[in-house]
Specification:
The protein contains nine helices and ten strands. It is of the alpha/beta class and 235 residues long.
């Protein structure tokens, strides 16, 4: 079976000698939406930063049929849309248009194609009318949706999101969950928002101590109270 993401025996040690990942292995099928849960310090963010080569550990990573290597790095980064927890890490241009156009412009696309991609990406996140706005004056929920648009404009095959609902009020959280539900893409989403997990993700990976300690059908994992307690997770 062709997997969109295939990670095998991934190990990573920080420069200070602290080991963050201990032989992480998992795969995600095309079109699958998978939740990544676990306590802080479990290695979730570190793992995500490996999926488009921001960090490089030992082991093998295949994304969208490509091995993650120096020669494939550009193609892999185009295939994986990584959205950070804090949208201010992603938004740095004077207007929303400039932020969402940044990736396509760097891909060397012509102006008309870039404009169309920006409009399509903003429409996909329900932010079309914000195209001329200044990103810095938006609410956190609006910024999170614009941050997703900045990767959708690159037309990635896979969306990797770190804590998408963190810091959102109930209405903005609901809008974001609805958005992720509507996006028909392969997704890996790290979250502490446990009530969101059964709504969106058919499969869940539980990480702790730099390892995937459990993986399987979301409904089964979330029904296992002992397992959840053992890894500090509460519904």
């Amino acid at each position: 079976m062709h997997h969109k993401i295939e990670v095998r025996n991934l190990e990573y040690t920080y420069p200070d000698g602290r080991k963050a990942l201990h032989g992480v292995s998992f795969s995600i099928a095309p079109g699958e939406k998978v939740a990544l849960v676990g306590p802080n310090g479990a290695g979730k963010s570190t793992l995500m930063l490996h999926l488009n080569g921001i960090l490089e550990g030992k082991g093998s990573i295949h994304v969208a049929g490509l091995e993650l290597s120096d020669k494939n790095m550009g193609q892999v980064r185009a295939a994986v849309g990584l959205v950070f927890q804090n949208p201010d890490d992603q938004l740095f241009s004077p207007t929303v248009f400039d932020d969402v156009a940044f990736g396509p412009l760097h891909m060397g696309l012509d102006e008309a194609t870039v404009r169309r991609r920006v409009q399509d990406a903003l429409a996909a996140v329900g932010m079309g009318e914000y195209i001329e706005r200044n990103s810095h004056h938006l609410s956190i929920g609006e910024k999170k949706r614009i941050a997703i648009a900045t990767v959708l404009s690159m037309q990635p095959e896979i969306l990797v999101l770190d804590e998408p609902t963190a810091g959102l009020d109930p209405r903005a959280r609901r809008q974001l969950i609805n958005l992720l539900h509507e996006l028909d893409m392969t997704m890996l989403v790290s979250t502490h928002d446990m009530p969101m997990v059964p709504e969106l993700f058919e499969r869940t990976l539980i990480m702790e101590g730099g390892k995937v300690v459990a993986a399987g059908c979301t409904c089964e994992l979330l029904a296992d109270q002992a397992l959840l307690q053992q890894h500090g997770l509460e519904l």
